């Protein structure tokens, strides 16, 4: 059986492969994925699928590179870089963001908790201001879309 750090690395590789079924299977039925900046929460196996497809729909060519993994017991912290071109609609709690055609590079961090070899919780941290600036969007533009 893989240790938690290896499993966390594998799940980030699976995202690059768009293997969302593998990612969902590695998620506990009562797991939560939280985007810390917005408070958006995705629950369970279906939530895992929704969270991952949301990003892939917005950035069809998107890829992540794992920069650092730090593990302690049931917890794993993964620092990673996400790159992609915003050529699809990105669904957010503030409304859909239509494709801008702009490239983006984000530094992200997942804090993951594992129980019995499955993701129990994941908190994702990234700079939404940097994301919006790279996409050429302002707060006024987002408000006018609602």
TrEMBL record:
Recorded superkingdom: Bacteria
SUPFAM superfamilies: NTF2-like
Pfam families given in the database record: SnoaL
Gene3D superfamilies: 3.10.450.50
Family annotation (InterPro entries): Cyclase_SnoaL-like, NTF2-like_dom_sf
Entry protein name: Ester cyclase
Annotated source species: Nocardioides cavernae
The organism's taxonomic lineage, starting at the top: Bacteria, Bacillati, Actinomycetota, Actinomycetes, Propionibacteriales
């Amino acid at each position: 059986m893989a240790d938690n750090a290896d499993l966390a690395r594998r799940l980030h590789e699976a995202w690059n492969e768009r293997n969302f079924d593998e990612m969902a299977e590695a998620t506990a039925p009562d797991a939560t994925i939280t985007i810390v900046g917005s408070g958006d929460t995705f629950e369970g196996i279906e939530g895992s699928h929704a969270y991952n497809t949301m990003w892939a729909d917005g950035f069809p060519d998107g890829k992540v590179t794992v920069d650092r993994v730090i593990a302690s017991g049931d917890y794993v912290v993964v620092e990673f870089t996400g790159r992609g071109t915003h050529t699809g609609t990105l669904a957010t709690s503030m409304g859909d963001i239509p494709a801008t055609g702009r490239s983006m590079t984000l530094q992200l961090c997942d804090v993951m908790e594992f129980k019995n070899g499955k993701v129990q919780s994941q908190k994702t941290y990234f700079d939404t201001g940097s994301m919006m600036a790279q996409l050429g969007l302002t707060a006024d533009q987002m408000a006018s879309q609602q």
